[in-house]
Amino acid sequence: MKRTNENRRSHVFGKTKSWKRTKRHITYDVKDIKDKIDIVKLINAYVDLQQSGSCYQGVCPFHRENHPSFTVYPETRSWYCFGCGEGGDVIDFIRLIEDLDFNQALRKLGKYTSINL
Ligand SMILES: [Zn+2]
Questions:
Q1: I need a labelling partner for 73 at 20 to 30 A (CA). Which of 33, 40, 56, 101 fits?
Q2: pLDDT score at 10
Q3: What is the DSSP string of 51-69?
Q4: Distance 81 CA to ligand 1 centre (A)
Q5: Ligand 1 centroid, distance to 116 Cα (angstroms)
Q6: Ligand 1 centroid to residue 24 C-alpha, Å
Q7: 85 with 12: CB under 8 angstroms?
Q8: What is the pLDDT of residue 24?
Q9: How many domains does the chain contain in total?
């Protein structure tokens, strides 16, 4: 990936608006997907995670680093990178790592959980 952090940040920020617009209609599905997906298992398919207490850590896929600062919190079904400040839920992760918009990410995760969207 050659994009800089700054570019990606504004790119993500721009997509936040459409996320808010579409959120209302699919709130139930989003919650359903978040409840059904094992965030550790999903992210572990992209990032090599090591358990560390109640959370999991790995080398961040969104910025260059040697020491793992990318952290996944199974309890809150969220993730956060202390190195670059990216973070969110499973949907945010798929959006960023696959470069999808919110609906595309939802569809992908829907397939993953066998929910028809
Ligand atoms: Zn990072």
A1: 101
A2: 45
A3: EETTEEEE--SSS--SS--
A4: 5
A5: 32
A6: 29
A7: no
A8: 52
A9: 1
Residue 1: pLDDT over 50:
no
Contact between 56 and 49 (Cβ < 8 Å) = yes
Question: pLDDT tens digit string along 9-68?
Answer: 444 444 444 455 555 555 557 888 888 899 999 999 999 999 999 999 999 999 999 999
* Average pLDDT score over residue span 72-93: 97
- CATH number of residue 36's parent domain: 3.90.580.10
Strand order in the sheet with 70-73: 50-52, 55-58, 70-73, 78-81, 87-88
Domain boundaries, position 100: 5-113
Element (H, E) at 96: helix 90-98
Measure 12 CA to ligand 1 centroid, in angstroms.
Answer: 14
